[in-house]
Design a protein that fits this description.
The protein is an all-beta fold. Helix content is 0%, strand content 50%. A 5-stranded antiparallel beta sheet has the order 2-6-3-4-5, with no helix packed on it. A 3-stranded antiparallel beta sheet has the order 1-7-8, with no helix packed on it. Strand 7 and strand 8 form a beta hairpin. The protein is globular and about 40 Å long.
Length: 101
C-alpha cells in the first residue's frame, strides 16, 4: 500500500542525519535548498569532526556535523540547510514514514 501522504499544509516530523545538514551565514540569500535560521548553542569535537548544536527556536535544536569549515562559535547566527532528498518525513501522530504528495 505504501507510505501515507501528509495532508496539504499538515504537520510532519522531519529527520535528516547530522552529516547531511550544512551551515550558511545567517545573512546569506536562501537558495533552492531548505533552510532554517538559528543560533549555535554549543560545539563539541568528535574525532575529525565538530558537532554544532543549533537552536532553531521554539524548543527545536539540531546537531550539524561539520568538517573543516566549523569555525562557528556558540552565539553565532546561522542558516541550517539540507537537500530534500536527504530528509525523511514522518507523520507526527503515528510516527509512520510519509511521502511527499
Amino acid at each position: 500500500a505504501g507510505a501515507p501522504r501528509p495532508a496539504a499544509g499538515g504537520d510532519v516530523t522531519l529527520a535528516v542525519r547530522p552529516e547531511h545538514l550544512a551551515l550558511r551565514p545567517a545573512d546569506a540569500t536562501p537558495d533552492a535548498r531548505n533552510a532554517l535560521r538559528g543560533r549555535v548553542a554549543d560545539r563539541s569535537f568528535v574525532g575529525n569532526a565538530v558537532n554544532l548544536l543549533v537552536d532553531l527556536g521554539g524548543g527545536c535544536r539540531v546537531t550539524v556535523e561539520c568538517r573543516g569549515e566549523a569555525a562557528r562559535q556558540p552565539g553565532d547566527p546561522v542558516q541550517v540547510c539540507w537537500d530534500p532528498a536527504q530528509a525523511i518525513a514522518f507523520e507526527p501522530e503515528t510516527g509512520d514514514a510519509a511521502v511527499a504528495a
